[in-house]
Amino acid sequence: MYSRRDHDIYISVAHLFCILCMKVIFGVRLKIMSISSEYVKIRLATKDDIDSVIAINIECLPEHYPYSFWLEHLEKWGDVFYVAEVDGHVVGYVLTRVEEGFSRCRGEEAKIGHIVSVAVKEEYRGRGIATALLTAAISALRSIYGVEEIQLEVRISNYKAIKLYEKLGFIKAERIKNYYLDGEDSYLMIKNVLEKPCNIKSIE
Ligand SMILES: CC(C)(COP(=O)(O)OP(=O)(O)OC[C@H]1O[C@@H](n2cnc3c(N)ncnc32)[C@H](O)[C@@H]1OP(=O)(O)O)[C@@H](O)C(=O)NCCC(=O)NCCS
Predict the structure, then answer these.
(1) For the chain, first and last CA: distance in Å?
(2) Which residue's CA is minimally distant from atom 24 of ligand 1?
(3) Is residue 203 part of a domain?
(4) How many CB atoms sit inside 10 A of residue 118's CB?
(5) 82-86 and 89-103: which strand pairing?
(6) pTM
(7) How many domains does the chain have?
(8) I want to staple 180 with a disulfide (CB 3.0 to 4.6 A). Which of 2, 8, 131, 184 is the partner?
(9) Distance in angstroms (rounded) separating the CA atoms of residues 190 and 204
(10) Ligand 1 pocket, 59 CB below 6 A?
């Protein structure tokens, strides 16, 4: 039976930092001694996390949603809504949902996973936290819901996020004009999660 605990993933930031230190400044003893003892825990979100998640969303992104939006996602798709926790504090989240939609890869209606929002507090970025959150969500979207494809929209100016998604196997499927309220275009990015190849190629 599916257990929430099964999806808890622990990353030792100290371990990652240590590897980085060894790579970049191998031999400099002082830097290696300043290793952080923080641990990042990737776990499913609960109702108690919603206020923290909203605060991170407001801090990191221009697209905000009311409390009821987050609660609805938690109630309907709580098994694909993850948070990252450091020392008992939420420092990042990924909110996803499942839709019946149009598969770009297959050219037909299919079960689609949608990454609605992802953010990591600025001081915790660059440590692989978003990668870990998205990897957990993608894995759960496949194993729990059997989605065929995962889609998301990203601002065309959001270089960091586009790099992150490309690293995780997403391709730019389409550029959508004036997608955001301020008039910026988005890329619709998709990730094929079936064994069968995808029928479309990246537009850039
Ligand atoms: C985008 C965001 C979620 C990345 O979080 P993160 O925890 O720093 O990401 P990771 O450490 O897992 O980085 C994964 C990849 O993202 C890309 N990336 C992250 N930071 C980057 C930067 N400063 N410059 C270029 N690429 C970057 C890289 O490809 C990186 O892989 P690498 O470390 O092998 O080079 C974070 O910057 C953020 O919260 N931004 C504001 C909110 C946002 O834009 N969300 C996306 C909305 S669509």
Answers:
(1) 42
(2) 160
(3) no
(4) 24
(5) antiparallel
(6) 0.86
(7) 1
(8) 184
(9) 13
(10) no
Whose C-alpha lies nearest to ligand 1, atom 17? 164
Q: Is the CB of 160 under 6 A from ligand 1?
A: yes
What per-residue confidence (pLDDT) applies to 33?
Answer: 24
Q: What is the pLDDT of residue 41?
A: 97
Token pair in block for residue 53 = 């998640």
Residues 126-144 pLDDT 10s: 999 999 999 999 999 999 9
Q: Ligand 1 pocket check: which of 125, 179, 185 to mutate, most ligand atoms within 8 Å of Cβ?
A: 125
Task: Tell whether 66 is covered by a domain.
Answer: yes
For residue 121, the domain's CATH number is: 3.40.630.30
Q: Separation of 107 CA from ligand 1 center, angstroms? A: 30
What is the span of the domain harbouring residue 66?
4-192
Q: At what angle do helices 159-167 and 129-145 cross, to 10 degrees?
A: 50
Question: Residue 28 pLDDT > 90, yes or no?
Answer: no
Pocket lining: 61 vs ligand 1, CB cutoff 6 Å: yes
- The pLDDT, as a whole number, for residue 47 is 98
Indicate the SS3 state at residue 109. Answer: strand
Considering Cα of 198, then 168, then 153, then 6, what sign does the dihedral take? Answer: positive
Give residue 40's Cα distance to chain centre.
15
> Among the atoms of ligand 1, which is closest to the Cα of residue 121?
39
Over its C-alpha atoms, the chain yields an Rg (Å, rounded) of 18
